[in-house]
Design a protein that fits this description.
By secondary structure, the protein is mainly α. The protein folds into two domains: 51 residues, no CATH class; 159 residues, Up-down Bundle (Four Helix Bundle (Hemerythrin (Met), subunit A)), CATH 1.20.120.450. A two-stranded antiparallel ribbon has the order 1-2. The chain has a two-stranded antiparallel sheet with strand order 3-4. A hairpin with a 2-residue loop joins β1 and β2. α3 runs antiparallel to α5, α3 packs parallel to α6 and α4 runs antiparallel to α6. The longest helix is centred in the last third of the chain and has 25 residues. It is globular, with a radius of gyration of 18 Å. The chain starts with 9 loop residues before the first helix and ends in an 11-residue tail after the last helix.
Length: 225
């Protein structure tokens, strides 16, 4: 894997392949993006990862539970601390991270409903300047995203709920199911981080994601990965 943080030459190696985002697994003059672990396993000669993705209907319940948890947690965040860094060694504020939990879902819907290519920046669009300056405002943004996600799922024909059609992403054509799972655990990971920030502030998190809600999601082992 090309490490652009610990290896000073990592960025130059990455650019030599003609790509500008990570993670990337490279061997010789070939590379594969690390977002789809099944693609990575195939690239390194393994017979898959052994991970069994949850069916879409289970992902739906888990993602909605995670997003509602994030609403509760971001409402607890003191407004005067929203512009602090969530963690000292990364340039991401608590405000951005709280917004990002829901922006991940909005980006997913823009791709699977509106036909927008899932490029590297889509889920990382920052909150609008001058907006989302309180936890309640971010949570209300979450209300709209939750409603749209429920509307999308409930409106799918039964045959489409397998989520096997493909969409265009910056790491290749991918089944909707893969992007659905990835987006679910991505929101879940940042929601776990919001709970950790509250604990650091001495605030007991109100309803963080439960182990049952997170079960079956391929979450990173460490909280800040």
């Amino acid at each position: 894997m090309i490490d652009v943080v610990a290896d000073p030459a990592g960025r130059e190696k990455l650019l030599a392949y003609g790509v500008r985002n990570v993670p990337v697994i490279a061997r010789g003059d070939q590379y594969v993006f690390g977002q789809n672990l099944e693609d990575v396993a195939k690239f390194v000669g393994l017979q898959g990862t052994g991970h069994q993705p949850l069916p879409p209907e289970q992902l739906t319940g888990k993602w909605l539970a995670v997003l509602r948890s994030a609403q509760r947690l971001i409402r607890q965040m003191p407004a005067e601390r929203l512009h602090e860094l969530a963690i000292s060694n990364r340039p991401r504020t608590i405000r951005f991270m709280g917004h990002h939990v829901f922006r991940i879902a909005e980006a997913y819907l823009e791709t699977v409903v509106d036909g927008v290519d899932y490029d590297v920046h889509l889920a990382n669009l920052p909150p609008a300047e001058g907006e989302f300056n309180s936890g309640d405002e971010i949570a209300r943004y979450g209300d709209a995203i939750i409603a749209r996600l429920e509307h999308w799922w409930n409106g799918l024909a039964e045959a489409d709920k397998s989520c096997q059609r493909t969409v265009t992403t910056y790491f290749g054509m991918q089944p909707v199911h893969m992007l659905y799972e990835r987006s679910t655990w991505h929101s879940a990971q940042h929601t776990r981080q919001l709970a950790a920030v509250l604990e650091r502030f001495g605030i007991k998190p109100d309803g963080p994601p439960t182990s049952e809600e997170l079960a079956g999601l391929p979450l990173p082992e460490r909280l800040w990965e």
